[in-house]
Amino acid sequence: MDFNQLTNILFLDIETVSEHASFPQLDERFQVLWEKKAKSLKDENPPEVSYPRRAAIYAEFGRVLVIGAGHFTIRKGELSFRTRSFYHSDEATLLQDFSQYLGQLTKKENWRLCAHNGKEFDFPYLCRRLLINGLVLPKLLQIMGKKPWDTHHLIDTMELWKFGDIKAYTSLELMAASLGIPTSKGDIDGSEVGRVFYETGDVKRIATYCQKDVAVMAQVYMRMLGLGMISPGKILIQG
After folding, report:
1. 3-state class of 42 per DSSP?
2. Are strands 62-75 and 235-237 parallel, antiparallel or unpaired?
3. Which of 44, 82, 121, 222 has the most CB atoms around its CB within 10 Å?
């Protein structure tokens, strides 16, 4: 099989949390703005409940906690997949570290980025948080105002799975199960990231979970291309 079509793709997943642990920690301006946001979402819970539950998915009220990244390599004719994660107590430092990695990795080849629901979430979220932190967008994320035909380097596994269908969201876990790919879910899932972080501070645990999701996404993409699956022994999850 021709695996060369896989080696210039960086698979990404981000884990996000609300910018603060609780609603009262927001300054007055953002408290008012969150109340307006919650109202637009028809969330009738008090802001002390709605904010920690929902703020993480909005870049204006959340922040990036972990970025998981992985890519395929071919050595002696064998395909392997290696993941790593980026996390730091200071979000700006985390994003700067990731941007530098992305620039170094992709400066010589025609690289692409792949994420599940990436065009609706991961890619725009990263762009917004980079700008909020006063950072320059790396070349592959300079997509502001671009038309769809100008962003062919962005791959979205959920979009591919639609086959033109416009119905609801399909989770990576459901796609993986449908394609016979083992789950990445262990002791936590995405809905528990905020709780785990603010209750325990265990970012490394979240980073490991994030990297496992990246590996599952890569397996999903392989299956969708008809390339089978890579053996678990050829997947390196960085501890």
Report:
1. coil
2. unpaired
3. 222
- For the record, the structure tokens of 103 come out as 């620039």
Task: Give me the residues paired with residue 115 across strands.
Answer: 156
Q: Is the pTM of this model over 0.85?
A: yes
Which tokens hold the place of 70?
């992985």
- Domain 4-19+61-237 fold is Nucleotidyltransferase; domain 5 (3.30.420)
For the stretch 76-121, pLDDT in tens is 888 999 999 999 999 999 999 999 999 988 877 789 999 999 999 9
> Pairing between strand 154-156 and 235-237?
unpaired
The token duo for 228 is 């089978």
Q: Please report, as a single letter, which amino acid is at residue 232.
A: P
Instruction: Write down the H helix ranges in the chain.
Output: 28-40, 47-54, 91-106, 122-132, 157-162, 172-178, 193-200, 203-224
